[in-house]
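To whoever is on call:

I kicked off a structure prediction for a single chain this morning and the downstream step that reads the tokens threw a length-mismatch warning. I double-checked the sequence; it's 200 residues and nothing unusual in it as far as I can see. Pasting both halves so you can look.
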Amino acid sequence: MEDRELKPHNSELPSAQPTLLTAEDLWKQTDDGYRYELVKGVIHRKPFVGFAHGVMRSKIASCLYKSVKKNKLGCVCSAGTGFKISQNPDTVRAPDAAFVRQAAIDEKGIPKGYWEGAPDLAVEVISPSDTYTAIAVKIDEKVDEWLDAGCAMVWVMDPRRETVAVYRSPEDMTVLHGDDILEGEDVIEGFQCQVRDLFL
């Protein structure tokens, strides 16, 4: 969940209102070696993540994929997949991993661009370089955005503390660690993983 240097366009003109962009504008963004999200019409630039962060993303996506494929539940999306979760102004977020139910895919098809709406599960991995003060603000913002957009569940993985926070609503949050079992519940039926195994 790398967000260290969020800098909207026109940041060199602090008195000017930034030009609000659309999801289509973001889709056409030139590939310049950075990743981008769009938050209420303002582009946020994101650097590539470090090796440890990448390993964690891969591990959770792999665990999800095996369970989802076995039970034919839908699609697992890797890091960098954009979800358009609000419009006018547009917001496009890219979680570290995500799951979309088969019923939604059957209804909408698989788009070439961003998925319209939230995934059923969004996973955010905290960057080892983030300070805990910055983390608290970012987590609250992102979790609220995902849940408001229709996510049934959000997982926030903290590699330093080796915990997974499971959100069903802003008020319904459980922190799992060690031998606790992370379950897909009614969102990814049959998925189970010992939290400790995600951080080995």
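Update from on-call: the warning came from a stale cache, not from the record. Cleared it. Sanity check on the structure: The chain has one domain: 51-84+91-198.
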